[in-house]
Amino acid sequence: MPRALPSAILVGVHLGLLQAGLLLTLSRALSAAHTTYALVLTAWLAGSALGLWSRAPARDLPRALGLGLVAYAGAALALGQVDFAAASPWWFAPAVAAAGLASGTYFAAAVAGGAATGRVFARETWGFLAGTLLAAAGYAFLGRHALLTMPLVTGSLALAGRPRAALAAVALLFAGCDDPVRVVPAPDRARFGAEVYPVLLRDCSFPACHGDPRRPLFVPGPGRTRLGEPESPLDAPTRAEVDLAYDRARAWLLAEGDEPPPLLHKPGPRAAHEGRDEHGRNVYEDPDAPGLAVLTAWAEGTEAPAP
């Protein structure tokens, strides 16, 4: 007797967790540029399309779910100890495609079993949306480990009765879960407002860059994106704007081991940064650039060099 398929809603939640988790992990560790979004969308759709072509989808579904968990775990393990690396996210296209394979395979298996196409699609879609929201909320309130553990739960439920496919992913995930609690640095707040905020506003806060509220480092202010509705776009920065920029900037001072913090490394020489000037140079291609020196001195609590 063939094994019953798992719930479309459950599979949708699981797939939403996987896709959103991959996007958040890649954006945090490698790049939050448009190329990362393009990678996740393109590779996921490619994997889903391959799943639709399965000749025996009901039999292949557990394999696809297990492969997706292992691929997700491998990507999470590879990037779990990295806060920012100068590497292309396209190296992870195979992992994204493998995670998306179960999407098409499940749909093909449900339709082959006589289920109503519209009902399956609707339930999987609603589950997918719920999984995406759950991943975002878990990451925001519980941290990166939520992105690891939540897919384990949903994947194990979807693979109920077939635990071997999930055991490899469990081993991979928990091999990389040693992440002690760290304190976010808090350099001088007044100095940030006087010295660092003007530099970030001048060099980084253009609308297509860190003046975009969707960026992890968001710097609102005069002549750029504003918070609230000031009488004039050129009015002096509000306390809320400077406070938000301060909190975002100090969060980017967290570093792993001997790696430099992303706030100082990402815009500097030889970093894989998308913010380039009209000459194709990085924001601070010169390691002695005055703006980079101001950021470094503030972060390290030393005196800024004279301009």
Briefly characterize the structure:
The chain is built from 11 helices and no strands. With 307 residues, it is mainly alpha-helical.
Amino- and carboxy-terminal Cα gap = 78 Å
Domain count:
2
Number of helices: 11
Total strands? 0
Could you report the average pLDDT, rounded to the nearest whole number?
A: 83
Indicate the percent of residues in helices: 55-70%
- Rounded to an integer in angstroms, the radius of gyration calculated over CA atoms is 22 Å
Oligomer: single chain
| Structural class computed from helices and strand pairing | mainly alpha
Give helix and strand order, one letter per element, not per position.
HHHHHHHHHHH
What form results from the Cα inertia axes? elongated
Tell me the strand percentage band: under 5%
- Main sheet specs: none
Poorly predicted runs of 5 or more residues = 161-167
Walk me through this protein's architecture:
- This protein is mainly α and 307 residues long.
- The chain folds into two domains: 168 residues; 112 residues, no CATH class.
- Helix content is 59%, strand content 0%.
- Helix 3 runs parallel beside helix 7.
Keywords:
11 helices, single chain
Topology of helices and strands:
Elements: H1 8-29, H2 34-52, H3 57-79, H4 93-112, H5 117-142, H6 144-158, H7 164-175, H8 189-203, H9 239-251, H10 262-265, H11 290-300
Helix pairs in contact: 1-2, 1-3, 1-4, 1-5, 1-6, 2-4, 3-4, 3-6, 3-7, 5-6, 6-7, 8-9, 8-11
Transmembrane segments: 36-53, 65-84, 90-113, 125-142
Organism: Nannocystis punicea
Biased composition (Basic and acidic residues): 271-284
